Amino acid sequence: xxxxxxxxxxxxxxxxxxxxxxxxxxxxxxxxxxxxxxxxxxxxxxxxxxxxxxxxxxxxxxxxxxxxxxxxxxxxxxxxxxxxxxxxxxxxxxxxxxxxxxxxxxxxxxxxxxxxxxxxxxxxxxxxxxxxxxxxxxxxxxxxxxxxxxxxxxxxxxxxxxxxxxxxxxxxxxxxxxxxxxxxxxxxxxxxxxxxxxxxxxxxxxxxxxxxxxxxxxxxxxxxxxxxxxxxxxxxxxx
Length: 239
Description:
about 240 residues, about 45% helix, Rossmann fold
């Protein structure tokens, strides 16, 4: 009687993608911890173009659930999350470096200050928003990985920027409107969220407004910001 290998898994080859010049991140899993759908969509496109699998968490609690389930090759962590600072998660992963080999921070805040804080917390590198260059994204990951995980031969550094779906931008603006309409408005988080979104979308007017937001929003401040966000949503719906 022939031996049944189905229950043991014997003689079943395990396929592991090999990095190539065209897909230099093949075989890797990248965990993106990012609350902005627009920023996440940009990173999703870069991962797909690079051959990597992407998983997304939109808060610290979700990120912990991911990390308790599998071991990503890379984690890209936004510093401003709805339930806390991404610096906390980076510090946790740094203390257990076998958990995630490469830890990158990303932020739409002032670059020098955000990068310094991220590196002090244990990040290997920093991706300032907007993250648009595919070549820069690939290079920042590869430079922290051992040589055996690099693709062989020369790699053409893609200079073209990838543009995320504008529907994701509309979702983010809707999320900001929801926060603005809540009874317990998290003003600090809303300001950070809008700053990152404005930079990712190259919206100078929204960035200027977000920078000028006071610590406590008066009724008039809410009304003005609500009108601005609604105008952006309407503009996207007309496209």
